[in-house]
Design a protein that fits this description.
The protein is of the alpha/beta class. It contains ten helices and eight strands. It has a single domain, classed as TIM Barrel. An eight-stranded parallel β-sheet has the order 7-6-5-4-3-2-1-8. Helix 5 packs across helix 6.
């Protein structure tokens, strides 16, 4: 199947799931993960109307960003998302390019993002990455640490906390991911209850679900699904 056919199939799938659960399909962003995509494939996806691109690695994404920058019309259409682990020494570059950072997982990283965003006179949108499976190989803050980090970020002048992100442990059975997605949704609600009491902004973004489990993620309230293989393979 072509990239366009894959996008159409996934978009129809998202619409069908949303209809079943009384959700507006417009609430769910299909984020194309470009880690294994060629520039030509990315252009094909953009031509078909896909406007959100996600990069795992800063240098790899930068190369593709620069390749697409030759076509100013394409660049203007794209929302760039940083979804991989972010080191503080790469923050300057990330703040220059990315519209939304999904992977804030420490106060130190948040402070560096705020610092670099201030230099760029930018308000950087971010998500907190939460490690709900407590796997040592996964990045992210622990569930009990999330509210504290959220409060710190909300006090910063050059960051805007939009919501939460998580990665479920890989499994061929998509239902295995449900408990993690449900836990993230409940955590978002818990944080929002605390924020409302302090008259602070509500979180409304849940970045969860990938190629193998995005359907379950949407059922549990995901607003951004991160899909790579199903689009570009």
């Amino acid at each position: 199947m072509t990239v366009k056919e894959n996008i159409l199939r996934i978009s129809n799938d998202i619409s069908s799931i949303c209809k079943k659960f009384a959700r507006d399909p417009g609430e769910v962003t299909l984020l194309a993960v470009i880690k294994q995509a060629e520039v030509g494939q990315i252009k094909e996806a953009i031509d078909f109307g896909l406007s959100s691109l996600g990069g795992n690695k800063v240098q790899d994404t930068l190369k593709k960003y620069q390749a697409l920058s030759n076509d100013h019309c394409l660049v203007d259409l794209i929302s760039w998302h940083m979804i991989g682990h972010l080191q503080t020494n790469k923050v300057k570059t990330v703040v220059e390019i990315f519209d939304l950072i999904h992977s804030v997982d420490s106060l130190r990283l948040a402070e560096e993002i705020d610092k670099q965003a201030e230099k760029k006179d930018k308000i950087q949108d971010v998500l907190i990455e939460v490690n709900l499976s407590n796997e040592a190989t996964k990045c992210g803050v622990r569930e009990k640490e999330t509210l504290d980090l959220a409060q710190h970020i909300l006090s910063m002048d050059n960051m805007r906390l939009k919501g939460l992100m998580t990665m479920a442990p890989f499994s061929e059975a998509c239902e295995d991911s449900r408990k993690y997605f449900k836990a993230l949704r409940l955590l978002k609600d818990k944080i929002n209850n605390c924020l409302v009491k302090k008259h602070q902004a509500r979180l409304d973004v849940l970045s969860m679900g990938m190629t193998q489990d995005y359907g379950v993620a949407i059922e549990e309230g995901s607003t951004i699904v991160r899909v790579g293989r199903a689009i570009f393979k």
